């Protein structure tokens, strides 16, 4: 798997966690007792507003007192409860696996490893790589095998599988096909199947998916997708998906149709980082969406033209600021891999964060336990940070827990 | 109504059963009544298409089945609604006895009302509105019941179906509830029912059990039905459509509606169902040229037969039943 990325995703750090798990959270042990440590001058990623924002514990902690009274002893970070509900599913941590860009999923084995480990962890998992329109349902062994791998590993009453459908997938009727497939029946029977309506994505808001295909694939897909010879070689073609047209009425009716046609499935909606993201969230929740995922522009993991990666879409922090106090279950994705970004997102109103590329890199590094170790590290880090804020539950965070440099709080202009 | 029997052990056993024989004789009389009534009112019977590049989009988990057609993915008709509308260019009043194929989710096996292969008496009337279509559906059902009572009394008797069960069917105009009223009635009966969705199967049966005569439910919410059911211009968000529900727990017999027929409205409605309108190219081309406004309905042949015979499940009134979730002949 190629770690070269245009948006500076910290693949090496993810790989370190996939190998070492919680040990990677701390400075090298060889330095213990011999070196002095303090704040580093610049954040690790030097990236977006969420990276540069700081978590700001108070001095006085009435919630810590409450926990002390409940426990009859001083609380510590292990007392932080991360159990939560994510879009209608029970989860042991405020974390889920997002859909991967179709360009990222280099091999089916990676997807299967992620599925098996997400299942073992009991965290919800979204699947959505346009496999059906491209390969056909009969050939969708990848999709079905990923569901089976998850099901084989997941504990009773935890987690869930969410199948994403884009406009192209709708033509292929992915949801309809899966809803009546015997494989999904155990998920339906236990209330652990969801469908995610993909309205857009972080990497290229306003655009549909894009992949590079070889000549033979291009010939096969001709007529179904726009194919352009713009990549400077005859052997490779640019395949684009249509983004799909949405208005408030179209979003409303599509969600209602999902609830009507698939009453036993949870309804998730994935939004691009659009300037009207708050209004779109409100419509989704008002019509009964169990979760709305906002994918920040800086965090998009799919392949995209450079102009879109560099210049288009709101950063995740600004999306969350515009949404404000969410009226439903809000999920945040985009460049998630470690605890501080996750906890900052929770403080800004998200119920959980989605791991996309981090999950893939982790299993690429350590096929058996990479995602499990990444989660062990992430959840320990979240417990440390949340307890430092004097909170003891993932959903107890608030906007006062975060500070953006040069401002008095989250609402000031960055 | 009989209790829900288990599906037959074999097709041979099913075809040998006297119950099957009596039910199919009743069905024959239903078809005779339908054809006589419709011909008498100036309808033309067309033979329906079996495959096409698109069909009625699936709903509630009902899968479409594909056919490889010279390398193109064609569909077996889940309903011929799009062709029915287009055929108004030839005849203003038409009908099919149309075979439809839908791979229903296995959970529908227990409703007693779902088959993967079934037939609709598919009627379309140019220039008609919802109330016209409702009135015609009522008239047609009444004629069917009267004709079957006259011509298949022995079969009904052999099946233990008491003709008195149809007293209220023949007794006068069917009542009408709006979808909103139906939701309220269900909630009053402690049944949780979404106001923005289709009446669920259990809810429909519950309402059906409260009544002794067929009744209409009108004005389903937009988003609960296909894009071709017209949005009520006087009640945005509601469709100018109806279901005709049989009493005594037999449930839905007919679904009908005024149709969307103007190109921009249809494209927008298709998009509201999440699809790319390009898929419906041939149909949209016809709409761009213009088709008459219309209303129509589909009456489930097996469902009507089950209602007439009083049997517990639709597979009992079908010679070659395909029960949801079962692989069989």
Uncertain segments of chain B are none
Shape descriptor of chain A reads: globular
> How many individual helices of chain B?
10
Shape of chain B: globular
Secondary-structure-derived class of chain A: alpha/beta
> How many β-strands of chain A, per DSSP?
15
- The CATH topology annotation of chain B reads as BirA Bifunctional Protein, domain 2
- Please work out how many helical segments of chain A DSSP would assign: 17
Report the CATH superfamily of chain A. Answer: Aldolase class I
CATH class of chain A: Alpha Beta
Q: Going across the biggest sheet of chain A, name each strand in turn.
A: 4-14-13-12-11-7-6-5
What can be said about this structure in brief?
The complex is a heterodimer of chains A (414) and B (329). Chain A has helices at 11-20, 49-52, 62-71, 108-121, 131-135, 141-153, 167-172, 174-179, 185-189, 215-221, 248-261, 277-286, 306-311, 316-323, 339-347, 357-365, 370-388, and strands at 54-55, 84-86, 89-91, 95-97, 125-127, 161-165, 193-198, 210-214, 227-228, 236-240, 266-271, 291-295, 330-333, 352-355, 402-403.
